[in-house]
Amino acid sequence: MRSCLILGSGRSGTSMVAGSLARSGYFMGRGLHAARAANPKGFFEDADINNLNDALIRQLRPQLGGGQGWLADLGVQETVTAPGNLTAALQQLTRRQPFCFKDPRFSYTVSAWRPFLPADTGMICVFRHPALTAKSIVEECARASYLSDVEMNTQKALQIWASMYRQILQRHRTEGPQPWLFVHYNQMLDGSGQKAMEQFLEAPIDASFADKTLRRSPPEMALPAEVVEIYQALCELAGYEDAPQTNIEDQPRVSVIAIAGPQTTPDELSRIHANVSRQRGVQTELVVVDFTDDGDLRFDGADIVVRSPSISRGEALKAGADAATGDFWALSDGRCWRLPNQLARAVEAINAYPQAMMVVSDYNLSQNGDRFSHTVNFKGLGAHPPPGWMAGALMRPAAAEAISQKAFWPTELQLLQTFRSRQQVLHIAEPLFSIETAAFEAGSYDAGVDAAVIQASQEPWEDGALLTVSLCSYN
């Protein structure tokens, strides 16, 4: 009988899978959580294992409260490791075999547990239609007291779902010797899941545990393209045929351009990618322009990576715009967080005014992520827009023709001013993105410098140059 870990997004059927093994003779932990309304037949999760996994995840997300690790949103580039003070506990738990440990948090923490797992430990990845899982996550956050401070919605739940399975598919499944079995929730209801598990684990399965009355039809919703792709990949691995309900083909496509320079960090790119992935009502692609010194940028989250042809930021933006395949393209700012409907709302606005070339929107100042302290309406941006304004900007492809290709030039601000002078800028008086107050204050000086450079370029210079730039190269 093979030891196993049961993982996958919360509210996807992991408890049903674990419950079917509860009488098989496995060690499942010393203190299983009691059943409650959310899982009337039991969770089959051990409190010690939950706490260990929460502690591992909080190394990367310290703001999460007790028991909230299963709602973390971690990027593929983020690795959970086991600090020295936790290794003894991991060793002690995995020493008692055969074990069956179930926790959605394993979707992130497998890498920390792997050194202590037998090589033949079975990894059972459980999943369900993402729309049903997202709906259930939102409902659980609304009724569970320990989640009362978590702000959850369907789009955020879908992003968490995608992040967990992205980690499993792109990292955990290809690392280590442990074998994997993928099981769809519905396969536990039709019996094929139990048969696959019995063969995989060489253990008896309680086929009567799964309640066939729990089969549900997914709610109507358009799923982000990435969610659809991940779900289809999971179904293929499980040998399950399903077609998620989606209207993706009918949605406009928006290319988000991120210029990655020498100072751009992997975390900033990951934040932009996660933010783009959260957008609803549109198809998205992330175009990353390699503006680094070495020109060897690699970022798995990008749909397109294009090398900037010169040191001119305008040339870099033009390269991104030329490579973009969307119906529109948008700017990005790693300090900011778009609301999930920002791009769809901008597309709706620009489609209503054919003469417009650019759309900009209002923003929120925030002290801690999505919790806004107050709204700022900057009335169409003006000549001196505040830091982060680019995160609220969207343009038609033809806007690329107006990009200045001067070196060391505030290209994006020049684009805004060009279209403002032509009365081709729309302003949405809604806060559609946020920027933390500290980042806002830190960026105010740079925003002022950009505005001053453009203003200086427009003033007469008969008495001499207002600005001199010296370029030197060394062999």
Describe the structure.
- There is one protein chain.
- By secondary structure, the protein is of the alpha/beta class.
- The relative contact order is 0.10.
- It has helices at about 15-20, 45-60, 85-95, 105-115, 130-145, 155-170, 185-190, 190-200, 225-240, 265-275, 315-325, 340-350, 410-420, 435-455; strands at about 5, 100, 120-125, 180-185, 255-260, 285-290, 305, 330, 335-340, 360-370, 370-375, 395, 425-435.
- Helix content is about 35%, strand content about 15%.
- The strands form two sheets. Strands 5, 6, 7, 8, 9, 10, 11, 12 and 13 form a nine-stranded mixed β-sheet that branches.
Describe this structure in a few short sentences.
This protein has helices spanning 14-19, 47-58, 84-95, 106-113, 130-143, 154-170, 185-190, 192-201, 225-238, 266-277, 313-323, 342-352, 411-421, 437-457; strands at 4-7, 100-102, 122-127, 180-184, 253-260, 283-290, 304-307, 328-330, 336-338, 358-368, 371-376, 394-395, 425-436.
- Uncertain runs are none
Count of helical stretches: 14
SSE pattern: EHHHEHEHHEHHHEHEEHEEHEEEHEH
Portion of residues within helices: 25-40%
Shape: elongated
Could you tell me the number of beta strands?
A: 13
Q: Quickly give the structural class.
A: alpha/beta
Termini separation:
66 Å
Mean pLDDT: 85
Rg (C-alpha, Å)? 25 Å
Instruction: Give the biggest sheet.
Output: 9 strands, mixed
Strand content: 15-25%
What's the structural blueprint in terms of helices and strands?
Blueprint: E1 4-7, H1 14-19, H2 47-58, H3 84-95, E2 100-102, H4 106-113, E3 122-127, H5 130-143, H6 154-170, E4 180-184, H7 185-190, H8 192-201, H9 225-238, E5 253-260, H10 266-277, E6 283-290, E7 304-307, H11 313-323, E8 328-330, E9 336-338, H12 342-352, E10 358-368, E11 371-376, E12 394-395, H13 411-421, E13 425-436, H14 437-457
Parallel strand pairs: 1-2, 1-3, 3-4, 5-6, 5-8, 6-7, 10-13
Antiparallel strand pairs: 8-12, 9-13, 10-11, 10-12
Helix pairs in contact: 5-6, 6-9
